[in-house]
Give the backbone structure.
Amino acid sequence: MMSWSPWCKPSLVPVILALAGAMRWAQGATIEEAVPQPRDCPSGIPAAIHCLGGRDSAGAFYLIAVPKEWNGILVVHSHGGPFLGAPTMKRTEQDLQRWSIEPRAGYAWAASSYHQGGVAVHSAAQDTERVRQIAVKLLKPKLTILHGQSWGASVAAITAETYTDGKPYDGVMLSSGVLAGGSRAYDVRLDLRVVYEYLCHNHPRPDEAQYPLWMGLPAGVHMKEAEIKARVNECLAVDKPEAQRTPEQARKLRELLAVLKMPERTLQSHMNWATLHFQDIATQRTGGADVFGNIGAQYQGSDDDQALNAGVARYAADPAAVARFAADTDPTGQIPVPVLTVHAIDDPIAFVEMEHTFADTMARAGHADTLVQVFSEDHDHSYISDATYVATLNALMQWIREGKKPTPESVAAGCMAAQTQFKSTCHIRPEYHPAALDSRVTPRQH
């Protein structure tokens, strides 16, 4: 197979893309994959970036994006979510649009839609590894970086610790990561369901079939996000300006947010996930067994904490179910290559305190020295800034190539340098260290 130089001349790229359609993989021990085919890049992607794509042997769609001035490095991307529907190419196109900074900065980029929806981390890791193999066979990169975003950061962490033969990944970048493991990361969403139901009594309503709230919804019951939103607005009026809420709605919303330490702007999203993702977990991942509990949780911040703690529903998680779920969703920290994380301090979705848990996980595995964590004084979950990600990738590459371990200070300096080419913000706070997750999410028996 023809391989690409790490400094491939722009004039050769269209030729190689044309040749890709005629190439065939050599027979091997694994399933033979179809050859990626040239295709139009999604809208907004610069013309200097060429795209290929296809559908892998498991049914996942994938895209590969290669800049004309390729630096010889491949970034394999694990997307967040998880989404609950069937895989689509549109999902992967949207990922390329969001993360176009990576090919714009000279990196080749490859990503999978995953072949199934739902909260299935090892399955998504298999899909991520599969697209890496496809891209590596085509491009022959000098180095391969694994980048996971949000829930995809947990996918990337487990990919990196699972697929180690031959050192397929040279380094790992995790951004805005849900890195506390499924056995702990979703505690706040169970808290949301039980405290919300105590205050609002409409999810489920008293005249509807009752079910344990850890289930999300009973098996076979379908509810669209619009109906969940209608129930939340009925009780809390989050769709209205504060001045238009009744005193009762305002009180309930204030109490709920205070107990959960959750911003109003993401309440609805968390409720959607605490309904639909919880249903996926209960019906598709655990055989109907409970993996979320709140025994021992003492909620604080309401107008009457004693009444709240006496009145909320209480659930004891099934230890065997928790162990099975943790085996699929919880990183072990056994990542044999450098890991660099970046996280917004005011992330309203994946609380920054999850990074404290991940640092403990890496330390227990004996890999504390191969983890560097960087924090940015930003307020969004889905994207921080172009310059931040360029600086993070550049720092990771220097670490891999030269053995020069980055520091938050050096990444901050690199961000300021990256701003000259990629006009965006740099808000890295080198001195910041997150508190333990228990300081943000009510502790309970685990």
Q: What stands out?
A: The longest helix spans residues 121-139.
